[in-house]
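ok here's Lipopolysaccharide biosynthesis protein:
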Amino acid sequence: METIDSKKTDKNQLPPDQVSPKEVVNRVILFKDQLIRSWKLLAIFMVIGGAIGFIIDFNTDKRPTYTGYITFNLGGGSSQGGLGELGNLAGMFGLGGGAPDANIFTGENFMYYVVSKPIITRSLLKEVDTTANHKDLMVNYYINKSGIRDDEWEDDDTLRNFRFIRGKDPKNFTRLENKALDGVFNRIKGETSIAQLDRKSSFLTLRTGMHAEMLAATWLDILLETVQEDFTEKQNRKTREMLVLMENRRDSLGRVLGRNDSNLARYIDQNQQVVVAEGQLQQSKLTRNSTFLQQLYYGAVQSVDNLKLSLIKEAPLFTIVEPVSLPLFKETHEPFAFQAGIVMGLILGLIFIFLRQTFYSIMQS
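and the structure:
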């Protein structure tokens, strides 16, 4: 009989790697009882989590962020040789072979160039329409609308009340002006980015995110305008130098030709009846000089016209594919750390109570 009962008992027992439903229910009841006994501890965890979340919410910037972007395409001038504009675009995005191009307007160089300090500073010192009938420097507009006074300059009354003067050369800026400009540059550079829209396209996207909608839209327009101006100036610098040289040559030849023609006319008027060979020789000399100077002058005029046409051909073409459109995308920052802190405190409290109960059970066994 004992052997039969023992066999029945063995059949009713579960393998060691399985848990019966009855045991699960018992463990849940024990854990519930433990929660009821430890409710104060659970409440402490929730209070601590809620307090941490409240502090985070209190220090979090709740102002909305307006995100805007401009998508544009950059085409090179016709003076690139060989592949021309297509070759320029291929090099811009690293599609060409060989060593990296040292040109600042190609590849990653161009990305850095757009958000470099000279470009951003030049953009900030431009005049913009802040209201219907009022113009101001972009840097003053940014100081007034971006919130930098309440963030970075909260404890500096000198910077909070500072304004830039229009028409002043940056080379003559005072220490305070340079400090203010550096502060604006460091903040606005972090709010501005440029990236290739897609690996297979040559479109670029200039993006910014600020707390003021009109400020963000104005900044994108003025920055792209400055990039286009500076790009064109640097791209055509050699041609412009040659143009200045040829214009000076043209004007100089024009003055010499005018004096020679005046002398020839005066000599003819004074010696109409002279038939001696010496007089005719002087008239022939002045006529020959006039003809030669005319040829040089017309050649200089033609060279100036050709250089002006070259400036147009070499100028890069900025095509705006998607301009800034209002309203901009608005991202609100609703406080949620307080609620998240309470939930995290609850979860950590449950885990702590469970681990403590498991530890006590192990010690008792």
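+1. The longest helix spans residues 277-314.
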